[in-house]
Amino acid sequence: MAEPERTLGDAAELLAGYLDHYRETVLSKIDGLGEEELRTSRVPSGWTPIGLVNHLAYVERRWMRWGFRAEQVERPWGGEAEWHPEVGAAEVIAFYREQCEHSRRIAASARLGDLARAGGRFTEDDRPTLAWIQFHLLQEYARHVGHLDIVRELNDGVTDD
């Protein structure tokens, strides 16, 4: 998915467009890797490409569903399985896509200045705006897409966008 149009001036549309751009870029970075490659770490900290995708699914869930909407979700932090999923890559990708779609629907139903609900991740005195949460997600994606760039290059030399 391409970056949003350069002439786009609506902040909500621009932010949603960039989030979707990075969400799809994550999947493009792992496209073509087999199950073994997806579960092999190339870095000293030990994370794997599929572990990073699973982490990002939990990030979406943690910030948008549990955070902004205060939905009571099971294991918002994911535990050990967040970075080391115990299911196959196809299931991780489906979970990731599902969480991204939840996030899209939540964002589309709110305004950037709306405050997160209390009772999930946030207390009554600590409720960020939707804009703040989405910008946080955007920087998280930008950082992790860079990580995937490096790991993919180390894995098989692919350096495409």
UniProtKB/TrEMBL annotation:
Pfam families: MST. SUPFAM superfamilies: DinB/YfiT-like putative metalloenzymes (SSF109854). This is DinB family protein. It comes from Allokutzneria oryzae.
